[in-house]
Amino acid sequence: MSGAALGLEIVFVFFLALFLLHRYGDFKKQHRLVIIATLLAWYLCFLIVFILPLDVSTTIYNRCKHAVNSSPAESNGSYVTLAPSKQKCFKPWSYIPDGIMPIFWRVVYWTSQFLTWILLPFMQSYARSGGFSITGKIKTALIENAIYYGTYLLIFGAFLIYVAVNPNFNLQWNQLQTIGIAAANTWGLFLLVLLLGYGLVEIPRSHWNGAKRGYLLMKTYFKAAKLMTEKADAEENLEDIMEEVRKVSESIKYNHPLRKCVDTILKKCPTEYQERMGRNMDDYEDFDERQNSYPSEKSLAKLHKQVIYSVQRHRRTQVQWQILLEQAFYLEDVAKNESSATRQFVHTFHSQEPENKIIQYFYTPTVEWYWECLLRPWFYRVLAVVLATFSVIVVWSECTFFSTKPVLSLFAVFIQLAEKTYNYIYIEMACFLTIFFLSICVYSTVFRIRVFNYYYLASHHQTDAYSLLFSGMLFCRLTPPLCLNFLGLTHMDATISHKNTQPTAYTSIMGSMRVLSFVADGFYIYYPMLVVILCIATYFSLGTRCLNLLGFQQFMGDSEMTSDLIDEGKELIRREKRKRQRQEEGENRRREWKERYGNRDDSTRSRAVHTDQKESSFSETNASRPLSKYTRSNGRTERDRIELLQDAEPLDFNADSVNDDPLESDSGR
């Protein structure tokens, strides 16, 4: 099993990252480089979280092995020997051979840092650029990132000058590397505590509120009112942008040098707008070089950028509105079925997507009623209590993990108790649950937050390239300090435990923070205590209240604005429900009509076909008669036609009006 656990987790984490990216991104429409870069960033961050417990168990085994094999004379050497167990140390099932983990962490860490500080910011500007060529997009990205990169180079250059001038500093390359890692981790820890303080309270509270009757439905009504406003704004913005595109398309003719740029912009427009603009084009008119009203290439690039953004936003709001409608209809069905005497879940509307037969076989209407109306609220309550317990343990450990005598951090107590018995399964499970819960609190906040329309992760393939890349940057900057914080909570970091024991492979890659004592002994220890203040602020919804005062409508039960938006959303859902019901009733009537009169139409059609066959057979029979009969009849018909033509009066071409039909020239005849 040596290294097998590492290989299995590498494969599992890859498919996990691929699944999440498929949920939020669009593999068909977005650029391949954006998908690959985001997938790599998410994959590396998730990989660190899943592999770190294996590193901890391997380190504990190495400590045990060194403690058993060391002699008393060696106890004052590079490692302090632990009290050897009476039992011989055995390898854990997930043991990773020596030399693999340091190389693995070095590759993973520096790749993630290259992504978050260099590649992803450049790709953000490239993806959002409105240039019409690769060179133009690269040029725009370099200009936009010049200030971003220049600021870091200026700070780093000033630091190097200070070190070179000051004789008290004698830094080597390893120490300089450690300072860079410490600077990146300090920035990440600052953001980590903010997100962690929100997630520790909001995740248990959201599950507890989800168990309340009617809470989710009221919140859905509130979301519907806000989303309708955003949807109307997106449609209006798209109309304005399309009007500008129409004017530009009409002014720049087919033989203008910038016509290729206009065609590129038209390809990004929705199909109905392309057809509308194509009908109004007149490509037979040449452009006049003497006119000065033509837009420049720079203005066209700006318009191209606006078209991409407006189309993406419009499509996202349309999809989100349909998803929200389905959710609201389902929650209304749950509220109606709670008082059902038959204890079978009845849907108002049938699902538009085909259901899986296996799920449909086991998840019957009776099972669905028991789950939605009875079991799910209690399950959410129990889950909320468990998550709240974890949150309390995390807050307590964040405030006390610096204490080594006595050990007050509960996570460190659990790990040390398991270390005495060398129960590696328990160690790995405890480490995994701890870091997994911390990751859920931090990463879920990244998926929930929305910075206006600048950054927003929308599910069902509606996230734009800029937000995907930005999320990859956040994950790469948050994961290393998150892992260091976890190692500090469990006292596996020598900087926290103050023991000269063998460090984990991950800590050895990070380097010793003793180079910057004010960071190692000050910021890393006392700054995480601010999580208490952030949890209190989140519990009393101080951030939500501040946003509500600033004019950003937030869901608050005691707010008059919230009540108005709930009523508005309820009316919108009711209107859409009536529309959906009328559509289904029309489809049912057409289906019943087809089932009732379909056979009669088929019989009528068959009789018509039979009559045609009889007529064709009759004509074939007449065709087989003697030719003389046809000759006599044809002659009589021809004489009658000649007599009619002789009786007709000649046309008077000098008359004021000429009638097309000579038989109608005289009304009396």
Automatic annotation (TrEMBL):
<feature type="transmembrane region" description="Helical">
    <location>
        <begin position="33"/>
        <end position="52"/>
    </location>
</feature>
<feature type="compositionally biased region" description="Basic and acidic residues">
    <location>
        <begin position="635"/>
        <end position="644"/>
    </location>
</feature>
<feature type="transmembrane region" description="Helical">
    <location>
        <begin position="177"/>
        <end position="201"/>
    </location>
</feature>
<comment type="similarity">
    <text>Belongs to the LIMR family.</text>
</comment>
<dbReference type="InterPro" id="IPR051584">
    <property type="entry name" value="GPCR-associated_LMBR1"/>
</dbReference>
<feature type="coiled-coil region">
    <location>
        <begin position="224"/>
        <end position="251"/>
    </location>
</feature>
<feature type="compositionally biased region" description="Polar residues">
    <location>
        <begin position="618"/>
        <end position="634"/>
    </location>
</feature>
<feature type="transmembrane region" description="Helical">
    <location>
        <begin position="146"/>
        <end position="165"/>
    </location>
</feature>
<feature type="transmembrane region" description="Helical">
    <location>
        <begin position="466"/>
        <end position="489"/>
    </location>
</feature>
<feature type="compositionally biased region" description="Basic and acidic residues">
    <location>
        <begin position="582"/>
        <end position="617"/>
    </location>
</feature>
<feature type="transmembrane region" description="Helical">
    <location>
        <begin position="6"/>
        <end position="21"/>
    </location>
</feature>
<dbReference type="GO" id="GO:0016020">
    <property type="term" value="C:membrane"/>
</dbReference>
<keyword id="KW-1133">Transmembrane helix</keyword>
<feature type="transmembrane region" description="Helical">
    <location>
        <begin position="378"/>
        <end position="396"/>
    </location>
</feature>
<feature type="transmembrane region" description="Helical">
    <location>
        <begin position="425"/>
        <end position="446"/>
    </location>
</feature>
<keyword id="KW-0812">Transmembrane</keyword>
<dbReference type="InterPro" id="IPR006876">
    <property type="entry name" value="LMBR1-like_membr_prot"/>
</dbReference>
<dbReference type="Pfam" id="PF04791">
    <property type="entry name" value="LMBR1"/>
</dbReference>
<feature type="region of interest" description="Disordered">
    <location>
        <begin position="576"/>
        <end position="669"/>
    </location>
</feature>
<keyword id="KW-0472">Membrane</keyword>
<feature type="compositionally biased region" description="Acidic residues">
    <location>
        <begin position="658"/>
        <end position="669"/>
    </location>
</feature>
<feature type="transmembrane region" description="Helical">
    <location>
        <begin position="103"/>
        <end position="126"/>
    </location>
</feature>
<keyword id="KW-0175">Coiled coil</keyword>
<protein>
    <submittedName>
        <fullName>LMBD2 protein</fullName>
    </submittedName>
</protein>
<feature type="transmembrane region" description="Helical">
    <location>
        <begin position="523"/>
        <end position="542"/>
    </location>
</feature>
<dbReference type="GO" id="GO:0071875">
    <property type="term" value="P:adrenergic receptor signaling pathway"/>
</dbReference>
